[in-house]
Design goal:
The chain is α+β, with helices and mostly antiparallel strands. 28% of the residues lie in helices and 31% in strands. The chain has helices spanning 5-8, 19-33, 44-51, 55-68, 95-101, 121-126, 176-184, 202-208; strands at 71-74, 78-81, 106-117, 137-146, 149-159, 190-199, 215-224, 230-239, 246-251. A hairpin with a 3-residue loop joins strand 1 (71-74) and strand 2. The longest helix is centred in the N-terminal third of the chain and has 15 residues, at 19-33.
């Protein structure tokens, strides 16, 4: 980052707007001016000297930006911009469509494709499907990326009966939801989802290019049509600090 923010917009040390809010707004503007670039912010000490404020003030500003989702922190490494970390993307709608809407270039690489697979016990546990029948599924594992940077590892189970004549090539590099609608007339409408924090396994870390044990957010969800027919079971593993949130009947 440049060292000209203080000259561009000095911090007022008296007035109605707290200093940490002023610092946060200047940093926010700088992040947005980078047009989606992913970068590390200067340290608290460097920012303190540059803005002529205390470290406490800088820390308050950074925490405010982190709460907004503008930046994120990594223990022992500092703060980074979140532009390549699903900023503005809900995680429920079409990944491809949402990323493009916010000016990014979506990517999707299939790393596993298998047919006639049972629904994983982990899915049955998290999505409470123990009492349901056990049809065969297409298993699809993809690494989702924004502007070439991997942001999510996604496992999807698709009931085979709903996707006759499906092939791996149909899911290469395209929107899964768009393919569902165009080829099989399936329109995803609702989703039930469960969020939980976790630490990255070796496999997850390798796919997402993060350190083993780094914080991740796991989202378990089942997608249904407007007639409540389940068309997809998904586990998405996202980069970043985690939290747990249960979202019911999210309109797609």
């Amino acid at each position: 980052m440049t060292e000209t923010w203080l000259k561009k917009k000095p911090i007022r040390k008296s007035g109605a707007v707290p200093m940490y809010v002023q610092v946060a707004e200047i940093l926010d503007t700088e992040v947005k001016s980078r047009n989606g670039a992913h970068f590390a912010l200067p340290s608290e000490g460097e920012l303190s000297r540059e803005f002529g404020v205390s470290r406490v003030t800088v820390r308050q500003a950074l925490k405010q930006l982190e709460t907004r989702g503008v930046i994120y922190s990594e223990h022992g490494r500092g703060y980074f911009s979140t532009s390549s970390r699903m900023r503005g993307v809900s995680g429920f709608h079409s990944f491809t469509t949402e990323v493009r809407k916010f000016g990014g270039e979506p990517g999707s690489a299939i790393v596993a494709y298998e047919e006639k697979q049972p629904l994983s016990p982990a899915f049955r546990k998290h999505l409470q499907t123990e009492g349901e029948s056990k049809p065969d599924f297409i298993f699809l594992r993809r690494v989702r990326s924004i502007d070439g940077d991997p942001v999510a590892l996604e496992d999807a189970y698709l009931p085979m009966a709903l996707y006759p004549s499906a092939t791996r090539a149909m899911f290469e590099g395209a929107s899964l939801y768009a393919e569902m609608t165009a080829t099989w007339g399936i329109v995803p409408t609702w989703t039930d989802a469960l969020f939980e924090p976790a630490a990255a396994t070796a496999e997850e870390a390798a796919h997402l290019r993060i350190e083993l044990g780094a914080p991740i957010l796991i989202v378990w969800r089942v997608t249904v049509t407007d007639t409540d027919q389940a068309v997809e079971y998904v586990k998405s593993v996202y980069k970043g600090d985690g939290f747990m949130l249960n979202v019911n009947r999210y309109r797609l």
